[in-house]
Amino acid sequence: MSTALLYSFGGILLIGVALHRLVLTTDLLRRVVALNVFAAGIASLLIAAAYRGPEAAADPVPHAFVLTGIVVLVSTTAAALALIRRLDDLERSVDHDT
Amino acid sequence: MIWSDPSTMTPEIMTWDLPSLVVILPLLAAVAAFLLPSAAVGIGLGATALVGAASSALAARLLASGPEISHLGGWTVPLGIALRVDGFAALMLVTTAGIGMLVGLAASRSFAAKGATEAPAEERQRLFFWPLWLLLLAGLNALYLSSDVFNIYISLEILGLSAVGLAVLSGKAAALRAGLTYLFAGLLGSLLFLLGVDYLYAATGRVDLASLGAIDEMTPALSMALVLMLAGLAIKTALFPLHFWLPAAHSNATAPASALLSALVVKGSLYVALRLWVDVFAPTAGLGTLIGLLGAGAIVWGSIQAMRVDRLKLLVAYSTVAQIGLICLVFALTDEIGGETAWQGAVYLILAHAAAKSAMFLAVGRIAEHLGHDSLERLHREPLRPGMAQVAFALAAVSLIGLPPSAGFLGKWLLLEGAMRADAWLWVGVMVLGTMLSVAYLMRPISGFLRFDRVEGPVIMPSRLDAADLWPLGLAVVAIAMGLLAATPLSLLAVGSPFVVPEVVP
Amino acid sequence: MLLWLVFDLVLIGAIVWLAWAALAARDGFEMIVLFMVLGLFVALAWVRLQAPDVALAEAAVGSGITGALLLKTWRHRRGRAAGDAAADARPSRALGFGVMGLVTVLTGMLAAVLVLIPRPAPSLAETVFANLAVSGVDNPVTAVLLNFRAYDTLLEVVVLFAVVVVVWLLGDAEADRRAPRLGSIFFGFARLVLPVMVLIAGYLLWLGGFAPGGAFQAGAVLGAVGIVLLLGRLYTPTAADRLPARLVFGLGTVGFAGAGLATLALGNAFLGYPPEAAKTWILVIEAMLTVSIAATLAGLFFGAAPSGRPTRESDR
Prior knowledge:
Structural class of chain B: mainly alpha
Number of strands of chain C: 0
Order of helices and strands of chain C: HHHHHHHHHHHH
Strand content of chain B: under 5%
Strand order of the largest sheet of chain B: 1-2
Structural class of chain C: mainly alpha
Largest sheet of chain C: none
Number of domains of chain C: 3
Largest sheet of chain B: 2 strands, antiparallel
Shape of chain C: globular
Number of strands of chain B: 2
Number of domains of chain B: 2
Order of helices and strands of chain B: HHHEEHHHHHHHHHHHHHHHHH
Distance between the termini of chain B: 39 Å
Largest interface: A-C, 71 and 93 residues
Low-confidence stretches of chain C: 312-316
Mean pLDDT of chain C: 84
Strand content of chain C: under 5%
Helix content of chain C: over 70%
Oligomer: heterotrimer
Low-confidence stretches of chain B: 502-506
Radius of gyration of chain B: 22 Å
Mean pLDDT of chain B: 90
Radius of gyration of chain C: 23 Å
């Protein structure tokens, strides 16, 4: 079995673990982490697809995709976390009022 | 919407790289509106008008000389990225700018500066609406023109993030909760789409639609990629049963935001799905039937919910679920004889729904302002004489139901004709059922509007002519008028149509 | 060869175990730390797969900055059992097994389809290498990001900008002022480390032209500098910093899009740099991106439009 395929299976397992927890958890922070693990699995698949053996240079296009994906993901994560913090503040102030 | 005549255009405009400009202009304006909050309204409206003018000029150019391709960076595909403009894309560009302009005018009224009495939450709405709308516009335009699956993924993210920003603009806890669910659903959708892009690249080494479309054989990897991408887009489009996020997100946003979210945002992902389905992949009959069945489920489920809910905004949001289902019936018909007609119908329904639903949400916003609530049960006991907002709602309902001569009628008629020519009587039946259901749920608020005199006591008169009612009314009129003035849009849609070969009638 | 196989299997096993352990952790803090370690292991795997550029970014952004954001949110919600499995509603046994079954089927199909792809699969690598000489840079990943597919990168910078807008819409700077401060050991550490990190960022940016590195990695490291400054209250933004902050956040988008407009004005395609000067164009754009990305990442960590008046050193 080739190295690339081995790491691809690793990526698919990450996707499986992430989806499993994503569906079952009700905690918001855990959901964010699960989506990040999902993305790491997808990125691993791309990086594995780009690998062309120890001698040849890897395909740079998937690498560029993953770099872009990482930045997009950290952005979306930041937005989700800002929403979670804001909601928390609002719920807290309601708790205090009652 | 203004259609410029190519003969009146200066030669410079004929050579400008308009496809790049309609993406870059709103981007720069978004930054400017964020930098200069005090001038945000002017920047927002001015940039929207400018993008509208550029889009119309582009559409006129297309009518005169056919589809266009801009090779960005001077690199041809598959190495570089190309912006491709065909009639479908141009039609979406013009509609988006036009609807955005009217909703923007309505927003400039409802988010007007109130000076010293302004609450911090109101100030935030007023300041942040414009950069978010301009980012949304840039994201949508990028999506319409993109001919590269990875580029589509990034455009979808711009669209999704600015949409979430608009959904939580009010800052209320219910909106924030709905916005968070929306963000999670959207992110899951994007990631599924990206996983599909993974499989496409791994199997073909290509991400541009032209190369992908040239591949005839549907290998398992391509089928997997298509299913993953469509699943991601279905979440973003809120196709039943993946619509779980939509009703709360759309009904808890402020009126102009709801209008944009339902009119334009869900259509962005639907547009991509339709393009991938028709332009790029050889449609698989089984998958098309499955999507059609989900569409039928959406019609039934969305309509039943719209008949049950008590809040007017929620009713309008569930109606979006049902209408999306109606449009998605086209996926079951494109492979048949009459596929092109059905496709034209679906595109026209997208446009009609965009105009009608934005009118409806703005009108509902005005009615809720008058009443101080949007409960349907209480609406039946309110002595409010119907005004312009109610008229706008009713006109929009005419288009949503599909009564002639509205745009909704034309779209539904074309879709029906496509189905009948394919002898697909199941789908014909579903469309008829959907029409009856839409009459049923839309009559609930309309009968409520008309019962104002059943209650004893003084009748509330809405101020006769309020400028704020003009914009929903204008949108509703557009939803009707596009049915009457369909010749130009339909001939534009034919430019670079993916159905190149004339159909053979048996 | 066998040694490599063992290494690969152990590494992949560790990655999958870390992912499982992080998501099953009972304690929120434990979950985040395990997730950050997972990021580092994934980066290691990518180095093994000859993707050092991406591995750098994953370690700095995917693990480091995402981890910092998660920890900030976890602390914000402390006392409300954020991220604790105890707070998770326990799914019923049937639901648990049902989801497990579905996920197994899905991953099985993903793996099976992947195996069926004929190899070697076609790719764009040859096209990229053939055009590398005229791209203005020697690092193929930088060539793809800033030349061949520069439009993607422009839109990516826009995503960052959009998030800053959303975060400013939502954030509450006052809530964070109440947060506890870090101890004195931290300041000694910060004074030592910060200048080094700034140097590393500059080096990475310069390196990106011909070796692993580039604007994103440099921006991430510089952004981390900003986060350390904010954490230690070595720099506390005030309302007066809003306009400069807005300017720097917008710089990436405006600079990049402006470069595109400039190329159009030159009569080239959008973002089509003059070939003889491509290197300079790319370097200037990258420098603007680095600054803007760094400020944006730090701004996302700060999490709100800054408010309040400047505080004196003695107030601390």
